[in-house]
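Q: I'm writing a short explainer about VOC family protein for a general audience and would like to include a description of its predicted shape. Could you first generate the structure from this sequence?
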Amino acid sequence: MATRLVQINMKARDDSVLGGFWAEALGWGVSSEGPGVTNLEPEGFVYPDPVAVVLDLVASAEPKTVKNRVHVDLATTSAAHQAELVARLKGLGATLADVGQGDVPWTVMADPEGNEFCVLDWHDAIRDTGPIATVVVDCADPRAMARFWGQAMDWTLHKVTDHNAVLRSAKGVGPYLQFLRTPDVKTVWNRVHLDLRPYPGDDPEPEAARLQTLGATAIDLGDSNVTWTVLADPEGNEFCLLAPA
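A: Of course. Here's the predicted structure. Afterward I'll give you a sentence or two in plain language.
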């Protein structure tokens, strides 16, 4: 049994407006599975497919109070592309952000609701990922996260050091998933989290149990109507195990 990363869940004060920003930023199409939810995916995309990790924006009245522990890095292909993308994103409502990054070759920005993201330096070797080059998760111990997530999913571990751990779909397509060592301590529920799915025919209950034997913990939302299981990884980052698809 195994799972795979299929989407990013992002809380939003206004899912429709923020969804419009990210649709323009990524060049993706917009749909909605119901009130308070805006779904983004590439045009012509057949979900789920590792060629893209799609984005779900979910309405939430809770304010953003701290730096997100999960963010995306956007890919660029040249110095001109990097500059053009930064300018275009500013025109869409993004702002430059300072998260203590210092003098770095990439550009740190925030979307109209303050969610941090990076526009990567075009010298970065990442290629053929689509507009989202990397999904980045802050952590204290990349090696421990590599052990858990490397067994939780069937993605391939490409790199692990004391600084970061990097995984990607075993099919060699789509964005990378990076666990990046940071000194920040997790203090609140993550407004941006990962959603996983088992493969068709797999039973999500045994899969949830397997994830817990690897070090995940179950989170009880007190709502018997939800069709997914909420878990947290060994560092407390919430994620959802959805139904097989």
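A: For your explainer, you could say: The first strand starts at residue 3 and ends at 12.
Q: Perfect, that's easy to follow.
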